[in-house]
Design goal:
The protein is mostly beta strands. The chain has a domain of about 160 residues: Sandwich (Jelly Rolls), CATH 2.60.120.920. Helices cover about 5% and strands about 40% of the residues. The protein starts with a helix and ends in an 8-residue tail after the last strand. This is SPRY domain-containing protein 7.
Length: about 230
């Protein structure tokens, strides 16, 4: 835990400076909805330790987008979950209340493998083949007649994963490019979900995105602003 915390706070210095009032984004990772061994720093923007943490605001607008930077590798997962998910799990999508891309290359919901990013041939060492064989999620399979839709790249340390959700499907983006692994049939009120373990450090990015959101998508807004 100390090693993780050291990595979490790496880069922080206490130096004299002129106070500047900056309007902080009220949306952040939620210390009231996280696993017992999760550690949040950077004003609720960074997660490490072990377990799951949710965002403090649900995705209620028509098209919402946020990003997660893989600051340090380990065991991790990113996606969406309701507040009924098991926050002490270190893998996402292993219950009925979460839908996640995992560091082992699987996209899961209710412990059903929707997609698996498989290692490609030696000729294309950076590419991973996307496959899905679940009979309950045949609609999630990429179109076979579009060769570009069957290839994705597994995120590595330093990459930025974008998550776009429009209440019809969730799409993952890797460094601004659609991974073509849509997840559908998401139910309930869902929140950003970050899972960490084994030294993983994840930073949630809720505005000032590293990559432009898909057309029509915006940062997560608090519910009152939509009334």
């Amino acid at each position: 835990m100390f090693c993780c915390l050291k990595g979490c706070i790496n880069g922080f210095t206490l130096t004299p400076s002129v106070p500047v009032r900056i309007k902080e984004n009220p949306i952040q990772l939620d210390s009231l909805h996280m696993g017992h061994e999760v550690v949040l720093v950077k004003s609720g923007q960074r997660a490490c330790g072990s377990g799951c943490t949710l965002g403090n605001a649900p995705l209620v607008q028509n098209k919402a987008y946020f990003e997660v930077k893989l600051q340090q590798g380990g065991v991790w997962a990113v996606g969406l979950a309701t507040r009924d998910t098991d926050l002490n799990r270190v893998h996402g999508g292993f219950d009925k209340e979460s839908w996640c891309l995992n560091s082992d290359g699987t996209v899961r919901h209710d412990n059903i493998e929707l997609y698996h990013l498989r290692p490609a041939s030696r000729d294309s060492p950076t590419e991973l083949l996307v496959s899905t064989e679940s009979p309950n999620h045949v609609d999630d399979k990429p179109e076979s007649d579009n060769p570009d839709s069957t290839i994705s790249v597994m995120p590595v340390e330093g990459d930025v994963i974008g998550i776009a959700y429009d209440h019809v499907e969730m799409n993952f983006f890797l460094n601004g490019k659609n991974m073509e692994i849509p997840v559908r049939n998401i139910k309930g009120t869902v929140y950003p979900a970050l899972y960490v373990d084994d030294g993983a450090i994840l930073d949630i990015i809720l505005d000032n995105f590293r990559y432009p959101p898909p057309s029509g998508y915006e940062k997560i807004m608090v519910e009152q602003s939509l009334l």
